[in-house]
Specification:
The protein starts with a helix and ends with a helix. The chain has nine helices and two strands, in the order αααααββαααα. It is an all-alpha fold. The protein has one domain: Rhopdopsin 7-helix transmembrane proteins, CATH 1.20.1070. It is globular. This is DUF6533 domain-containing protein. Keywords: Membrane, Transmembrane, Transmembrane helix. It comes from Coprinopsis marcescibilis (Agaric fungus). Pfam families: DUF6533.
């Protein structure tokens, strides 16, 4: 069995060094990163008006800080994926550094999105002291396991591989890693993300059914469930797809769907916050920031 795996790894390394294989690796990974950045900009400009009205005037808080961090982090992390695949004649140390920065940035995007959802969940669960500590402990365990485990697995994945430029650098730019046989590390990392998301979804279902659904039905809860359900379904699909890619695809395509997953986490978490704040504003009968200021200065 071990000899068969060794032969397979050797064959994969041989194929990966072919100019055609390197060209396809560069091409598809650049398309994935470019589509992700395009979606980011489209999402940003589509939701900018709501953000200006609902988030900018509010006082600084943990939610607002995480919101803007979550908003900007993909714009910082995803371009490193383009740099990794487009750098002309890169050195091995350059490739390893860019790859590591890209991985940490994408992991941060996912974990910050999870943290934002836990804070929203705490607000909708009633803000009780016992509930606060219960959620803090579970969030700490879930996010810590996902982030620490995923981070350590990523570091192990990076340190166990080797990097170099293209064998045909005049024709095919970018970095190329030799990480055959390490796909199981990424599979476990994606399963940790899925585990963290499933924990959060379980709490959402519990609080919705036990706390609010029977006693305090509200449009806010419907929005939370609508956006939250879509968020967790998308999370599960992307995590499973990335895990399958890490396990079955050649090493050069293992991160093909990682930038889209980071963008999906970020944009869906941001939309959930904006929709919740918009519904809160409508419940108060307020339609604009100027009206909020007017009502504050001229109370009835």
């Amino acid at each position: 069995m071990s000899s068969r795996l060794a032969v397979r790894a050797q064959m994969e390394r041989y194929i990966a060094e072919l100019p055609e294989a390197q060209h396809y690796k560069m091409y598809y990974n650049i398309i994935s990163a470019a589509i992700s950045i395009t979606v980011l900009f489209a999402e940003y400009f589509q939701t900018l008006e709501l953000e200006v009205e609902l988030v900018w005037p509010s006082e600084w808080s943990l939610v607002k800080f995480l919101y803007f961090t979550n908003r900007m982090m993909p714009f910082i992390a995803i371009p490193f994926s383009l740099l990794y695949n487009m750098a002309p004649t890169p050195s091995p140390s350059f490739c390893k550094s860019v790859f590591l920065v890209c991985c940490i940035g994408i992991w941060s995007c996912i974990i910050i999105s999870e943290a934002v959802l836990y804070i929203r969940l705490y607000a909708l669960a009633g803000r009780g002291r016992k509930m606060r500590w219960f959620l803090i402990c579970n969030a700490f365990c879930g996010i810590k396991v996902a982030f620490t485990g995923g981070f350590l697995l990523t570091i192990l994945y990076v340190t166990s591989g080797s990097w170099n430029g293209s064998q045909s650098s005049k024709v095919v730019p970018g970095c190329f890693g030799n990480m055959s046989g390490q796909g199981h590390l990424l599979l476990v990392a994606y399963l940790l993300i899925l585990y963290s998301g499933l924990m959060t979804m379980a709490f959402c279902v519990y609080f919705g059914l036990k706390v609010y659904w029977k006693s305090k039905p509200s449009p806010l809860i419907r929005i939370f469930y609508r956006d939250g359900t879509f968020y967790f379904v998308a999370l599960a699909v992307m995590s499973i797809a990335n895990g399958a890619a890490a396990l079955f695809l050649p090493s050069r395509f293992r991160f093909l769907l990682t930038p889209p997953q980071a963008v999906m986490h970020s944009t869906l978490a941001i939309r959930m916050i904006l929709h919740l704040r918009e519904e809160s504003r409508q419940e108060l009968g307020i339609t604009s920031v100027s009206e909020i200021i007017f009502n504050t200065q001229h109370p009835a």
